[in-house]
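Researcher: Structure prediction, please.
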Amino acid sequence: SCSSAKKLGPASINAGAGAYLGYDDVFIFSYESDKLSKPLDDKTAELFLGPSNQLITAVLKGHTAKESYDSSQKYFLQNIQKLVTSEPSDSSLIPYLFWDKMHQVCLGDEAAVL
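Model: Predicted structure follows.
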């Protein structure tokens, strides 16, 4: 979760956790205010939450910490590319997706699994 990899992540590794996946700074996302009552229809929020949720989904499916991290990172890049090539382009979201991508971390043993 937000900023947990700044202190909790390293502390968890030092206490014996195999790996820690999270964010070392705030997680930024945008959403469509008219979709608050229907979050599954919110395509803007999905740009941010999809890659983050991919991380958890991959871990739960038995992938290694590194594989899960890489899968999420790839998803962030795909969403950034989608915004760059979309018509009309909504490039205003790109810096925030890039921020989240750059602040997602994989600490500890990259080969760790649940």
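Model: Residues 65-85 form the longest helix (21 residues).
Researcher: Thanks, that helps.
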